[in-house]
Amino acid sequence: MGIRVELRGVSYIYPGSKSRALKNVSITLRNGMCYGVTGPNGSGKTTLLKIISLLYKPTDGHVLYNGTDPWGGDITSYRKRVVYVHEKPVMVRGSVLDNLALGLRIRGYNGDQIKERIERIAVKLDLSPLLDRNARDLSAGQRQLVAIARALVLDPDVIALDEPYSNIDFRKRKRLSRVVNELRGKGKLVVISSHDIGLLVSLCDYIIYLENGEIVLEGPAGEVYRELLSEH
Amino acid sequence: MERSALLASAIIVLVVIVLASYTFLLNNNSTIAVKATTTTSLYATGLLDYLGDKFEEKHPGVSIQFVAVGSGEALRRAASGDACFVLVHAPSLEIQYINQGVLEYHKIFAYNYFIIVGPSDDPAGVRQATNLTDVMERIYRAGEEGEALFISRGDNSGTNVKELQLWKMAGLDPKGKQWYIEIGQGMGETLVMASEKNAYTLSDIGTYLKFKKDGRIPNLEILYSNDTALINIYSAYLVKSCSGEERKAAKEFIDFITSDDGQMLIANYGVDKYGQPLFYPASDKLSMLESTWSELAGQG
Amino acid sequence: MEPIQIIVLRSLTISGTATLLAALWSIPLAYLLASSRRFRPLVYFFEALVGIPTVLVGLLLYLLLSRNGPLGFLELLYTPQAIIVGEALLITPLITAVSYQTILTGLSYYRELALTLGASDKQAALLVFRETLPSLISSVVMGFSRAVGELGVALIVGGNIKGYTRTMTTSIALATAMGEYEAAVKLGLVLTAIAVGVSLAVRLVRREWGSE
Ligand SMILES: Nc1ncnc2c1ncn2[C@@H]1O[C@H](COP(=O)(O)OP(=O)(O)OP(=O)(O)O)[C@@H](O)[C@H]1O
Ligand SMILES: [Mg+2]
Hints:
Helix content of chain A is 37%, strand content 24%. With 232 residues, chain A is an alpha/beta fold. In chain A, helix 3 (96-106) packs parallel to helix 5. The longest helix of chain A has 16 residues, at 170-185. By secondary structure, chain B is α/β, with parallel strands linked by helices. Chain B folds into two domains: 32-112 and 231-297, 3-Layer(aba) Sandwich (D-Maltodextrin-Binding Protein, domain 2); 114-229, D-Maltodextrin-Binding Protein, domain 2 (3-Layer(aba) Sandwich). Helices cover 49% and strands 21% of the residues of chain B. In chain B, helix 5 (91-100) packs across helix 13 (286-298). Chain B starts with a helix and ends with a helix. Chain C is mostly helical and 212 residues long. Chain C has a single domain (4-209), classed as MetI-like fold. Chain C is built from eight helices and no strands. The longest helix of chain C has 37 residues, at 80-116. Chain C is globular and about 65 Å long. Classes of the chains: A alpha/beta (232), B alpha/beta (300), C mainly alpha (212). The structure holds adenosine-5'-triphosphate and magnesium ion (MG).
C-alpha cells in the first residue's frame, strides 16, 4: 500500500528559540514521487525534512501519515517507515559493516538477513570495498554514501535525504540518481533537499521553494524551474 | 571471541580481588572495636600503636582504634560521643569536659616535659634565663627588637594551650605581633618551620627527639628544659556515653596502660632508638602529678 | 606502619567503590540533565561544585555522622564506609558535569541517528550510552583520580585508623607529621603511579575501542 504524507499548517520553533523556523506550512506528498526542496541557507529545508521524517514534533499544526497523526499514537512504529539522512552524518564506532547493520539490528533482523541485505545495498552504491574499513576514517563523501545505504537498507516507505549530493563525486552522483529513480519506481516517497536546482529539476517531479520558513513557490519541476529562471 | 574470553577472565579476576578486599580490608574483623580520640603529637611518637598492639595480644577480638587530632578536637569529638575513651595532655581543657560531666575515670598514665627550642646561636639568650618567666620575657624582647621569631602551633592542642599559659604567666601577650607566627599545624610541622626560619617554639620532648634524630630540624636545639613548670601530663578518660562491651574493653585498656606492665612499656618506649625515654611512667609520682594536674587545670 | 601494599589496596577499594557508587547516580543524573532543558540550571550548580574543598565535604559529613548528628545512629563515623560515602559525594559534581557534556553531544548525534533508523526511545538511549561510553569512562576515571588523591574526607570521617581506615593520603599526612619523609614520598610516588597508570589504561582502552 502506498503512503501519503500531509502537513497541515505546520509551524516549528526550536527549543529555546523565539522565531519560527517553519511558518504555517501545508503540503501533501504522495508515494511514487520525488520532491525537491530548495531555498536559501537557513530557509528551513532541514527543519522541513525532519518534520516529515517524524524527528521533530510540530509546534503547531499536524503531520498526517495516510490521514492519521503519528504523534497521537505509537510514534516508533511510524518512524520505522521513514528514514532521514543527515547532511553530515555521524558514524557509530566500528566498521562500515557495523554501521550498515545498525538499523537492521535495532529492528531485530537475524545475522543472515542482515548480511544479505547489506550485500545488496553495498553493490548498488558501490560500497563493497569499504565494508571492513573503520567507519570514522571515511571521507565526507564516503560517509554520506554509507549513511544513505544505512537508511535504504531498511527498505523504508518514505526517504528524506538532506543535501545528499554535497560531497559526492560525479560518478557516484549518477549512481545515486539511478537509485533515487528506482525508489520512486518502486512506489516510495522521496524528499531531497539541495541547493542545486538543476539537479533537483532533473531528478524530481515536484519542487518546493522555501524562504524564511515559508513555501514561497511550489509546483511541478519544470514550471518552478522556468519561474525561478525568469525571476533572476 | 578471544577478546570476550579475555574480558570475561579480567572481570572474574577483578571481582575476586574486590571481594577479597572487602572481606579483609573494609571489615573490622575483630568482634569489639573501641575508638579513642587522641592528640597528634602523642600518636605520632608511635607509643599508642605500640601499647595498642600489646593490649590486643592479650585481648584477642578487641581492636583499639586511634583517631589522632588536636587535644581540643580530641576532647570535643569524644564529648560528642564519637569515641569511647580519650588520651590527651591539656588539663585546663580536660577540666571543662569533666565539669560538663561527659568524661570520667580519669587516669594519669604518663608525663614528660615540654622544652623550649630555638636556633643554636640563641639571639634571645634563652640559655641564660633563670626561670620560665625570664625565658618568655627574653623571647618577647628579642621579638620586639626584630631579632627573634616564635612559632606557635595555634591549633588548640595541648602544647598550644601550654604555650599560651606560659605567656600569660609571664604577663605578656604576643598575639598579633609580627614575630609571633601561628601556623595551625602539628608539632612536627611546627618544629620543621622553626628550624627553617631560625625561630623559637615550645615542643614536647618526644616529637623533638624523633625529628632531631632523623635530621629534620638541624638548626634547632633544646635551650630550656627540666623545669617542673614545663611538665606535660598525659591523661586517659572514659567517655560517659560509651557503654557495653566497648566500654568494658576501653576500661581494660586504661587499666592496662596504668598497670605495672603497661607502665614498664611506657618507661622503655623509644629508649633503644633515641637513647633516652620519650615518656616517664606516672605511677612513681602519682600524687605529685595529680596535684600539678589540678594546678594546671585551675589555670585555664 | 602497615605494609604499603595493604594500604594501597585499601585505598583502591575504598576509592574504587566510591567511584562506582558516584557513577551509578551521576551518569543517570547527567542523562536526565542533558535530556531536559528544564534542569539546565542544575548543571551550573554541579559545575560550580566541581572544585568543592574536600575538607568541607569531610566536615559536613562529620557533622552529619557524628553520634550527636542527625545520622549518628548509622554508626558510620570512622569507618571505611564513611569515606566511601564522602568521596562518592565529593566526586558527584565532577562526574555529573563532565558526563553531562558528553551525553549532551551524544544525544544530539546518536539519539537522532537512532530515531531515524526506527529505534524506540529505549533503544536510542542505549545507543547514546554505547557511543558515549568511552568518554563516560574517562569522566569516571577523573572522578576516581580525585577520590583516590583526596585527603580531607578520608582524614575527617575515616580517622586514619591503623589497619582499618588508613588510606594512602592519610598515611602520607601521618608520615609527614612524624617526619618520615622517605615513607611519605614513597607513598606519594605510588599514588602518582596509580593515577598515571589508570589514565594510561583508559587511553589504551579508548584507542582499542576506536573512539575519536
Ligand atoms: N538547533 C537549532 N536551534 C535553534 N534554531 C535553529 C536550530 N537549527 C536551525 N535553527 C534555525 O532554524 C532556521 C532553519 O534552519 P534549517 O537548518 O532548517 O535551514 P536550512 O534551510 O536547512 O539551511 P542550510 O541551507 O544552511 O542547510 C534557521 O534560521 C536556523 O537558524
Ligand atoms: Mg540544512
